[in-house]
Amino acid sequence: YGDTTREFTDAEIYEAARQADIHDTIIGLAEGYDTMCGSSSQVQLAGGQKQRIAIARLLIRNPKIVLFDEATSALNAAVEE
Fold first, then answer.
1. What is the pLDDT of residue 71?
2. 31-81 pLDDT, tens per residue?
3. Membrane spanning segments where (predicted)?
4. CB of 56 within 8 A of CB of 16?
5. What DSSP state is assigned to residue 7?
6. Any alpha helices (H) in 1-81, and if so which ranges?
7. Record: fold of 10-80
8. Nearest 5 degrees, angle CA 70-CA 71-CA 77?
9. pTM for the whole thing?
10. Could you tell me the residue ranges of all domains in the chain?
11. Which among 78, 32, 28, 29 is positioned nearest to 55, based on CA atoms?
């Protein structure tokens, strides 16, 4: 959903990550934004971190409508706003 027709610049990616409050976590990883995460890597993310990345992906695409189904349950109040 949203803009899937183009590649995004690094600046746009960083800004979306900042808005989702995940940028500092990402740059703190061994390879920063190039770090592989998930079950097949040694880097595992917490539930709230996964949610923040999902929110950053949503923000960068700028959809007209966003539906949340308890998607912010693991986030703190500052990020939720």
1. 56
2. 999 999 888 888 889 988 998 999 999 999 988 888 877 655 666 665 555
3. none
4. yes
5. P
6. 10-19, 23-27, 47-61, 77-80
7. Rossmann fold (3.40.50)
8. 90
9. 0.76
10. 10-80
11. 78
